[in-house]
Amino acid sequence: MRNGLSADLIARVLGAAPKYTLDELEKKFPPRALPDGAFVTRFAPSPTGFMHLGGLYGALVDCKLARDTGGVFMLRIEDTDTKREVASAVDIIVDSMHRFGLEYNDVPEYGPYYQSQRRDIYHSVAADLLARGLAYPCFLTADDMEQIRANQKAAGFATGIYGEFARDRDLTDDEIMAHLDNGEVPTIRLYSVGDPSKRIFCKDAVRGSIGFPENNEDIVLIKSNDRLPTYHFAHLVDDHFMRTTHVVRGEEWLPSFPLHAQLFRMMGWTPPMYIHTSTIDKIDAETGKQRKLSKRKDPEANVAFFLADGWPTAAVLEYLGNIAASGYEEAKSKGQVSSIWQYPLRVKKIPISGALFDMKKLEWWAREYIATLSVPDLVRCVTDWANEYGNDVQKMQVQNPQYLAAMLGIERDNPKRIRKDFITWAQTLGEVAYFWDTLYTKNTEFEFNRDVLAEFLKTYDASDDKDTWWNKIVAIATAAGVKNGEVAMNLRVAVTGRTNTPDLYSVMQVMGGDMVERRVKEIING
Ligand code: GLU
Predict the structure, then answer these.
(1) Is there an atom of ligand 1 within 6 Å of 235 CB?
(2) Whose CA is nearest to atom 3 of ligand 1?
(3) Alpha-carbon distance 180 to 131, whole Å?
(4) Residues forming beta bridges with residue 274, ordered by sequence position
(5) What are the φ and ψ backbone dihedral angles of 335, each rounded to 5 degrees?
(6) Quick one: how far is CA 308 from the chain centroid?
(7) Is 78's C-beta closer than 6 angstroms to any atom of ligand 1?
(8) 45 C-alpha vs ligand 1 centroid, how far in Å?
(9) What DSSP line would sit under 186-236, residue for residue?
(10) Tens digits of per-residue pLDDT, 165-212?
(11) 84, 235, 237: which to mutate for ligand 1, most atoms within 8 A of CB?
């Protein structure tokens, strides 16, 4: 600890007198009136213009924990890194949250929820630390720090601003004033009293108590360029005054954990419970090894990929939910629950080692999910997707909702036997493309039996019911001495171009007599 700064000096150092005392802040943001056991969580992304799948996973865990316990789920925009900020990046985050159904229920009383709008609050807490000699203004320039770093490296010391290398940690008031009179704007640094030869224990709700060497670095609390806080300081202040009970964040924050524990201790505040989640991994196609999803290499690392590609957002969430709550899939297959929102997430079971995200497995969740949709819902999802993301062909395909409903409705009337070949909205439109003449392609590989097709046309009547239609096929097969299935297969390939389709009678009914006759004739003649 050093001597605390006077109120006047604090005002000069921070650029203005602090707006609040700590007591005022405590009153302004009182403990929340929530039932016992209610979790207060927050998703706290930095607006980089990119929403990572791992971020979505964390947000789901946050949202689930709050919803499961009747608590509060906040969205906090960590926009203090003005250098990294990208226009419309917040829109991407907010939009993704809505699309994936991760609704937050924060209230204005604990806001604002943009860190860039909370400067007064951070400065008020920084003023308290400055007054208590637990923080100090530091006037080191980038060049100074480079020099310190080079010296440390040359001498084999750990790099950083700490102990004897923290040039300004014990400046006198006069020295501070001289710098200020010189027009210099300081950073505010922590006056660390940590000793790395001692251990500090930090509690993670899943990992248990983890021992770390104490932090001795005088880390930056408030930056000089914009007087905004660093993540370390902002999160301390926000999670305290927003009354966060559980911080869910990626395991990349584990190394900063001792620093955060130290900061909470210095403030005399009870830290929230931390849950450091594992990375979301994949199996690398080249090496066959498990590795973290990479923003650079893997399109699926970006949440926008799933939207543009037409994956049902609910299925992506179901899959991520099953990673966080591994018993979900079993409970669902037993029919005990039908959505991740009905299955309680157990904190202790949240995985802490690399969770695998596998597109094949996602396909399964998507097939299962789409199978639960009613025909009107399916039509709506496909149409909305095509209108927003589709190409011209896909947009054309959703022009006629009745026609689309008829083809998508095939094999969806028996709840026990719903077709499961639809995976994404884009792929669904691909699956039914043969219902349009412009998209149908004649199968040139199949060896057609043109005689049975000619026989079929002689008696075909589009108004036949299914039995009559089938009896005619049987009659043609018998007369030609071939199997019934062979006649049906010839018809199927003739009218759809494919060897694999849902119920052929239904397909032909939806197409209508003209289309069927035209296509069969074309095969016979060609
Ligand atoms: N802004 C931090 C990040 O994007 C948030 C970490 C946290 O949730 O505390 O990683």
Answers:
(1) yes
(2) 45
(3) 18
(4) 204, 247
(5) 75, 15
(6) 14
(7) yes
(8) 5
(9) PEEEE-----TTSEEEEEETTTEEEEEEPP-B--EEE-TTT-PBPHHHHHH
(10) 999 999 999 999 999 999 999 999 999 999 999 999 999 999 999 999
(11) 235
CB 54 within 8 A of CB 154: no
- Residue 9: what pLDDT? 98
Q: Is 40 exposed, middle or buried (0-12, 13-18, 19+ CB in 10 A)?
A: buried
pLDDT at 85 over 90: no
CA of 147: how far to CAs of 162, 324, 339, 343, in Å?
14, 46, 57, 56
Q: Which atom number of ligand 1 is nearest to the Cα of residue 42?
A: 8
Atom of ligand 1 nearest to the CA of 43: 8
Taking CA 132 as the corner, what is the angle to CA 127 and CA 137, rounded to the nearest 5 degrees?
55
Contact 29/110 with Cβ under 8 angstroms? yes
Q: Is the pLDDT of residue 134 over 90?
A: yes
CA atoms within 13 A on the CB side of 368: 18
Measured N-to-C along each axis, helices 53-69 and 313-324 cross at an angle, to the nearest 10 degrees, of 70
45 ligand 1 Cβ < 6 A: yes
Percentage of residues of the chain with pLDDT beyond 70: 100
Residue nearest atom 7 in ligand 1 by C-alpha distance = 249
Chain position carrying tokens 């039509």: 379
Q: How many angstroms separate the CA atoms of 410 and 490, rounded?
A: 20
In sequence order, which residues have a C-beta less than 8 Å from that of residue 351 and are 6 or more positions away? Answer: 277, 278, 323, 324, 326
**How many A from CA of 78 to the centre of ligand 1?**
7
Does ligand 1 come within 6 angstroms of the Cβ of 44?
A: yes
Nearest CA to ligand 1 atom 8: 249
Nearest-CA residue for atom 5 of ligand 1: 44
Sign of CA dihedral 455, 459, 462, 467: negative
Q: Is 338 exposed, middle or buried (0-12, 13-18, 19+ CB in 10 A)?
A: exposed
Kindly give the interhelix angle for 504-511 and 466-480, rounded to the nearest 10 degrees: 110
